[in-house]
Amino acid sequence: MEVVILKSFTYNENGGNGAGLVVVDSDMSEEQMQVIAADVGLSETAFLKRIDDESFNVRFFTPVCEVELCGHATIAAFCYVGEKLIKNKIGSLKLYQNTKAGKLSIDINYKDKTVESVLMEQASPKFYGYIDNLVNYIKNNEEQKLSIASSLGIDASSIGLANYNIKPAIVSTGIKDILVPVKDRQILNEIKPQFDLISKISEINDATGYHVYTIDKEQVYARNFAPFVGINEECATGTSNGALGALLFKENIKKGYFEVLQGETMNELSQVCVYVDENGVRVGGKAKIVALKYL
Questions:
Q1: CB of 239 closer than 8 Å to CB of 173
Q2: CA nearest 107: which of 258, 117, 6?
Q3: Which residue of 73, 105, 141, 199 is most buried, as measured by CB atoms within 10 A?
Q4: pTM of whole model > 0.90?
């Protein structure tokens, strides 16, 4: 079995989040896909099967479970499609992926017959409300509380944005995330995640994980923690930043095009491009093939 290893959301040809890709040319069971994803060991592996000239079925697996959608694995998969499976590499090309989050469009942009960028449509934003720093749950018939701030190793006063009144929110554009604002970039970079607490709070809220963000001189920075699905931290997350784009648009903080820098503390600084308006959210970036792995 050949697995293509790519890095998505590279920044100045560096950084990027690793993803596996398997091009499926025959029937493969869910159990087989899960075993392969675990062997690959990256945060997500995409299994892509071509349906016709424009459409592909895509499934996404972490090392421990299937997820409905994955931004960086989508960018990786369709960078490969654009480079290896498409003959006419001129201008822009629109394709479609059928995922468990729905049928979503993909735009591949070429420059000098090479993939310059891949832009993916996100599922329609779903807002599940705002939550306070303290999360309530029932244990042994008694009400218990967990602190989002404590789960990040920061003080409760660090939650929020310096210039905006906003609380943690649960949003999905394909994957349900808890979006946690922090006051500044230093706080973001000094987070000491308590993965057991993050997992518990994610489970209580039926969310994949945390997407923690701040805005510094109009630049958005983020970190992503999803230990509940087997991913402690990722250096670039497309779908989570899609959810963030939807929230910032709803709050009149960002609209149109903006960029998110992620992975700074992992020495894998990555760039996710977000475009959001009243018609929805798209995210994208660049990707590159880095290796082949044989299982």
A1: yes
A2: 117
A3: 73
A4: no
DSSP letters for 77-88 = HHHHIIIII-S-
Residue 36 · residue 22 · CB < 8 Å: yes
- Report the candidate in 104, 116, 133, 51 with the shortest Cα–Cα distance to residue 288: 116
Type of residue found at 69: L
d(CA 188, CA 192): 9
For residue 37, the SS3 value is helix
For Cα atoms 240, 244, 247, give the angle at the middle one, nearest 5 degrees: 140
Within a 13 Å sphere around the CA of 101, how many CA atoms are in the beta-carbon half?
Answer: 27
Angle subtended at Cα 276 by Cα 263 and Cα 17, rounded to the nearest 5 degrees = 25
Contact 16, 288 (CB under 8 A): yes
Task: Taking each helix axis as running N to C, give the angle between helix 238-250 and helix 71-80, from 0 to 180 degrees, rounded to the nearest 10.
Answer: 120
Q: How many CB atoms lie within 10 A of CB 184?
A: 15
135 within 8 A of 156, measured Cβ to Cβ: no
Which structure tokens are listed for 48? Answer: 């892509």
DSSP string for residues in 224-264: EEEGGGTEEEES--HHHHHHHHHHHHHTTS--EEEEEEE-G
pLDDT digits (tens, 9 = 90+) for 129-187: 999 999 998 888 888 899 999 999 999 999 999 999 999 999 999 999 999 999 999 99
Q: Which residues of 106-130 are buried (b: 16+ CB within 10 A; e: fewer)?
A: bbbebeeeebebbbbbbbebeeeee
